[in-house]
Amino acid sequence: MRDVLAHGGPDYGGNYYDKEIGLGFGHRRLSIIDLSAAGNQPFIWKNWICIFNGEIYNYKEIQADLINLGYEFESGSDTEVLVKAFDCWADKAVDRFRGMFAFGLWDTETQTLSLYRDRVGVKPLFYYWKDDLLMFASELKSFHEHPDFDKTIDKKAVSQFLQKGYISAPLSIFKNVRKLPAGSFLTFSKDKKHSITKYWDPNKVYQKPRVNKSEKETEEELEAILKESFQLRMVADVPVGVFLSGGIDSSIVTGMLAKNTGQKLRTFTIGFEEKEYNEATFAKEIADYLGTDHTEYICTEKEFKEIIPNLPEIYDEPFGDSSGIPTCLLSNITRESVKVSLSADGGDELFGGYTKYEITKNQYPKLEKIPLGLRKFSSKLLKKVDPYWIESNLKIGPLKNYSNLSNKLPKFLDSMTAGSTEKFFHSASNYISSEALTKLYPNFQNGNHFDVQIEEDRLIGYLGLIDIHTYLEGDIMTKVDRATMQTALEGREPMLDHHVIEYALGLPDDLKIRGNTTKYILRNILFKYVPRELIERPKQGFSVPIKSWLLNFLQTDLDALKNDNLFFEAFELDQKATKNLISDFTNQRKYVNPHFVWFLYTLHRWFLRWIK
Fold first, then answer.
1. How many angstroms separate the CA atoms of 269 and 281, rounded?
2. Which H or E run includes 551?
3. How far is the C-alpha of 228 from the C-alpha of 342, rounded, in Å?
4. pLDDT tens digit sequence for 225-237
5. Is 115 left (phi over 0), alpha (psi -120 to 50) or beta?
6. Considering 14, 136, 218, 297, which has the largest number of Cβ atoms within 10 A of its Cβ?
7. 8 vs 308: CA distance, rounded Å
8. Is the peptide bond before 170 cis (omega within 30 degrees of 0)?
9. Which CATH entry fits the domain spanning 3-200: 3.30.70.980, 3.40.50.300, 3.30.870.10, 3.60.20.10?
């Protein structure tokens, strides 16, 4: 169970056993802070035994506070600080931590196990509980090593995966496995009683009064918070790099660090041969301007073909975000030079960067004025028209400014019939409608519900909050963690410091999206560090030519999927309806979202690796 995680922790493997009570801890180490044996785990001190994945960036400040209270330290590791902080402040210690973490803490005196996960779920923590067997791990592959692991599939998780391409906490693909929700801890006592407690809740943060200062003052405060958060993530005893895509978020991280740290940064970019997917030239221009030591790697179809068969092993839960492929390749290249790299995820959720936010804010209020019956009729009528034809001939009204319209239009037509802002937003985020999915998957369960009221003048913050709970944790953090860990690279998220999140959730809408300008306040800060002309261009995203792959070198795999009876039985999918949908896609008879076909493909490949 321990050593199947050696890819992410190649530097040391340690164990702790208490056979009398039936407890075992196993840990694989990636040495980042205090590279000596003093930092090895499990870490044992007094009545505490700890295994810890992640980093506490402000550990030196916490250590100084503990020294003033009489604690002594034998290592320079943040693990020792973590344990002694709990000894001092009990479960309130976690409130002091700024970092990414998942850890297990065993108290030999009370015989209580505590499992903690960081505030937004940067680090994963799965736990299994059935028939008096409790297991927890960073990746599902550990559980497969245990002879009593029950692999019963969770139907609700399958529903979410097929509609969105990921599975967010607390669900997992297995019925008896759960993901510990972000910002929570689970306690498990010797009498088998267990409970989950929320120690940080972004919903409560969002419900606080909005930031009510001048634009200039707000911009200055946010810039100071970002600067401090970015610099904090440079703490390491090994070289640190930065993923630079050339977009707003990675450019502001690189720009602020290049100016404020006084050291020559190492930046890394991956590009593609296909020009429409390649942002490497933009990243190179920014790297040249900032004077970084820049590495650029152009991927060919050969590299993609080599890594796709490994995806079920890397992402050992069904995972449908195709950008995980270039993220894995980028991590491999980066690891050749450094052991830690900063990413810039979270900027879209916090500062209004997604098109779906803009559409929801601008279009739903207009739709709401149209009677629901008329909207349903119009949606049904327009769905009969091929989206490719509409993209070529009818880019009018609210649709005229949006690229890749053939993929976005079906989502918009589904969302036309929504009866609330939340339902409109979820429909705009889905890759297949609930109605269409039910025909393929009769067990479909719609789990979309968010019980938070929209605060005045903060709709964009509300939509970002939904994504923080779902898309950010279930997709983005999963993508980056598995991609980096598969090659023993530590990925850090400077945008996701809780100080940044708490400030961003209080910002009014017009500082996030103003007119047609997304990330308005973030752009204003960025332009102090990088010239506007190097940034102002259409948002591209980290995408790959998934449709082309499925229609060419992956088509044989799709044919195998259509005829795999055991696959359809395992997931209780309607085989005839699914075969017809895939045939419609491969023959290009009807429009089918290529990303949804990719979801089916990745689900089947996962099934072949872990179930069949």
1. 9
2. helix 546-551
3. 14
4. 999 999 999 999 9
5. beta
6. 136
7. 19
8. yes
9. 3.60.20.10
| 3-state secondary structure (DSSP) of residue 272 | strand
Distance CA 474, CA 171 (A): 10
Dihedral angle sign, alpha carbons of residues 4, 157, 579, 569: positive
Contact 594, 600 (CB under 8 A): no
CA dist., res. 570 & res. 173, Å (int): 12
Between β-strands 126-130 and 133-137, what pairing exists: parallel, antiparallel or unpaired? antiparallel
Which of 93, 109, 99 has the alpha carbon at shortest distance from 49? 109
User: How many other C-beta atoms can be found within 10 angstroms of the C-beta atom of residue 252?
Assistant: 27
Q: What is the pLDDT of residue 404?
A: 62
With the CA atoms of 315, 599, 246 and 301 taken in that order, what torsion angle do they form, in degrees rounded to the nearest 10? 80
CA of residue 196 relative to chain centroid, distance: 22
Is residue 401 scored above 90 in pLDDT? no
The amino acid occupying position 552 is: N
Tokens of 265: 């940064």
Label residue 189 exposed, middle or buried (CB < 10 Å: 0-12, 13-18, 19+). Answer: middle
Count of C-beta atoms within a 10 Å radius of residue 532:
10
Cβ neighbour number for residue 4 with a 10 Å cutoff: 17
pLDDT digits (tens, 9 = 90+) for 101-152: 999 999 999 999 999 999 999 999 999 999 999 999 999 999 999 999 999 9
- Tell me where in the chain the CATH 3.40.50.620 domain(s) lie: 209-351+460-534
Task: Give the C-alpha separation, 102 to 93, whole Å.
Answer: 14
Q: Is the peptide bond before 42 cis (omega within 30 degrees of 0)?
A: yes
Q: Where are the alpha helices (DSSP H) in 394-433?
A: 405-415, 421-429
Question: Does position 397 have pLDDT exceeding 70, yes or no?
Answer: no
Contact (Cβ atoms closer than 8 angstroms) between residue 197 and residue 90: no
Any alpha helices (H) in 115-212, and if so which ranges? 155-164, 202-206
- Measured distance CA(194)–CA(524) in Å, rounded: 48
From CA 189, how far away is CA 110, in angstroms rounded? 8
pLDDT at 407 over 80: no
The residue behind tokens 């991609």 is: 483
Q: What is the pLDDT of residue 392?
A: 63
Token representation of residue 388:
């490719």
**What gap in Å lies between CA 303 and CA 66, rounded to an integer?**
49
How far is residue 95 from each of residues 56, 117, 183, 501, measured CA to CA in Å?
12, 12, 10, 15
Q: Which residue has the tokens 């008329």?
A: 374
Q: Which two tokens stand for residue 111?
A: 């015989």
| Bridge partners (DSSP) listed for residue 52 | 103
Higher pLDDT, 293 or 379: 293
CATH architecture assignment, domain 209-351+460-534: 3-Layer(aba) Sandwich (3.40)
- What is the chain's alpha carbon radius of gyration, rounded to the nearest angstrom? 24
**Based on the number of CB atoms within 10 Å of its own CB, is 347 exposed (0-12), middle (13-18) or buried (19 or more)?**
buried
Strands 266-272 and 240-243: parallel
Global pTM value: 0.94
Place of tokens 């969302």: 415
Instruction: State the burial class of residue 471 (Cβ atoms within 10 Å of its Cβ: 0-12, 13-18, 19+).
Output: buried
CA distance 2 to 476: 25
